[in-house]
Amino acid sequence: MTQDEIAAAIAEFDAAIARDGGADTPWLALQTLARKAIGAKLFTIMTVDMKNELARRAYTSDPVAYPTSGTKPIHRDRWFDVVHGAHRSFVANTIADISTVFGDHETIWALGCGSVINIPVVVGGELLGTVNCLDVEHHYTPERVERSRLLALPAKLAFLAAGRAAA
C-alpha cells in the first residue's frame, strides 16, 4: 500500500464517520479501512468490561457465525497477557496456533480463516476493546502487522463515535 493509498483510505474513513451518525457506521468505516490496509475476511469488534471480566461483540462482518448478542467471560491466558496486559496486538498465523487460545477455532476454520490479528484499543491506559481481523493462514505477515498500526488512531475514533451513536 502506497502512502497515497493509505491517505485516501484514512480520508474515506474520516468522511464516512463525519457524514453518518448511525450505530454501525464507525465499525463499517473501520472495517473498510482494515480490509484495505491489512485484509480481513472476517472483521469483528469486541468491547471489554474488566470490572465484571466480560467481553461483548459490538460489531461483526458475519452476524450469522458471530452474532453481536450476549457476553463471554474473559479468560486469563497468553492472549490476555499480550492484549490486556501488554496492550500489544496478538497475532496467530495458523489454525493450530489459533486453537490454543480460541475455543471457536473450528468455526474460524470453517469460515476459511486461519490467521488472526487482535488489535487492542487503549485510551488513558484502559483497554476499551479489540479490533479483530481474520484471514487465510499466514496472512498477517510482518509487513501487514506493521501496517496494522495505522488502525490505532482510527480505531479509537470509531470507539468514540460508536459510543456517541449509542448515547
TrEMBL record:
Family matches, as InterPro entries: GAF-like_dom_sf (IPR029016)
Gene3D superfamilies: 3.30.450.40
Organism: Pseudaminobacter salicylatoxidans
Record protein name field: GAF domain-containing protein
